[in-house]
């Protein structure tokens, strides 16, 4: 560092400290614990003694709930005036799978008959494998308070039907679906409100909704909702049977220990989530729901939980960085290797951190080139490429180097890179270049440039 930067030294040190702090914070190891049975959904308190989270739970700290009052914030509206407050807080949306990393969900507060009153608040959630942590919003009003409930550990690892990134549309099929609307199988995802949920064409008992989980799971629970409709519609499945298989052919009906077909009964209506733990977990890849009793129409939205992932947290099937909540997209057109020369030069010195995950997308191309690209590609000087192989196996991770091509040297400078194959795209953990002008460039596929 030359002396003319000395006056900046204190600023640089503060910036460096901030950067370290951001990197070392992990909400799964650094959170505050709340053990408060008065938050339980079954605690009905005289509202005269209502409590409030304003100023107590803030966005400064992640929290984990423990103890007899419950360990998760409920997904169904609590009864009015429960949880030691006037307005009891619950989450409208899925708790994430481990692989989804940190997600944001709508936080609702029930006030009398209004199940989701007040301004819309959001809460961040992360699944830490055997527990959840939450980052509450900063409340501006009283009496709002988060509720908790006890949830069997089996429900802590959803397979991910609620996310189209985990279970793609082509893995959701059905015997039939109602036309003229968003009723097809792909809308049969728990918590999905982009469509109406799955509705078969006719109301008869031969209809089914099937999910292909992509590989075998040890399924220990199912969760269901009815269709996604407003209050005046009263159409939902009230009972169903499950058929499962590993090969999409030799299906077995789910039975209890005495060899009797199990019929699952739903008490929830359209939006309430019904959870059923399987007394006997089954290994399955294809699972079919056969509605057996209905209220007007056999609509469903579904999810499964897997017993296997919980005991195997570190090797969750889909790595966290493959989730859109964990990577940032690099999609600028001028990041594409042959972008037309502009009057300015670009550089990646302004990446926010050292070692964040990035996905090349859109006009920037779909990957980095695994060969030396021309200097001054992607409107910079030193053009970045990967000096090594990309991972060829699904979800494989490789550590390699990026080279920057400048002058007559294909590798005038290099920087470590990790690359994850996310089965359909790559994500790259990229270091911020310390100086300009170095930039990571995109290409499309392997053979665009020779
Ligand atoms: C709901 O499901 C549809 C169909 O798969 C999907 O296009 C949509 O993105 C889903 N909504 C959310 C919020 O995931
Ligand atoms: C039941 O479904 C079959 C085809 O899946 C259809 O042909 C038949 O009309 C349906 N019955 C009723 C009563 O809707
Ligand atoms: C860059 O390459 C693409 C094909 O990959 C081509 O369509 C485009 O015209 C090229 N742009 C320039 C500025 O050469
Ligand atoms: C810094 O990043 C922003 C957006 O991420 C981009 O628009 C800008 O051009 C970048 N600056 C340089 C010098 O590359
Ligand atoms: C990742 O792995 C899959 C499965 O082995 C392979 O087919 C694919 O070409 C690899 N690359 C990407 C971008 O998914
Ligand atoms: C690529 O990396 C290898 C070491 O892994 C190095 O020997 C080689 O010189 C690099 N390629 C270029 C063009 O610098």
Structure report:
Strands 8, 9, 10, 11, 12, 13 and 14 form a 7-stranded antiparallel β-sheet that branches. A 7-stranded mixed β-sheet has the order 15-16-20-19-18-17-21, with no helix packed on it. The model is unreliable at 1-25 and 309-317 (pLDDT under 50). It has 450 residues and is mainly beta. A hairpin with a 2-residue loop joins strand 18 and strand 19 (409-421). The radius of gyration is 26 Å and the shape is globular. It has helices spanning 9-24, 307-310; strands at residues 32-34, 63-65, 87-92, 102-111, 114-127, 132-135, 144-146, 172-174, 209-225, 236-245, 252-253, 264-265, 274-295, 301-306, 327-330, 356-360, 382-387, 397-406, 409-421, 426-430, 438-440. The protein starts with 8 loop residues before the first helix and ends in a 10-residue tail after the last strand. It contains 2 helices and 21 strands. The chain folds into 3 domains: 32-150, no CATH class; 169-306, Galactose-binding domain-like (Jelly Rolls, Sandwich); 320-443, no CATH class. One 2-acetamido-2-deoxy-beta-D-glucopyranose binds at residues 346-347, 350. The site of one 2-acetamido-2-deoxy-beta-D-glucopyranose (NAG) has 3 residues, from loops.
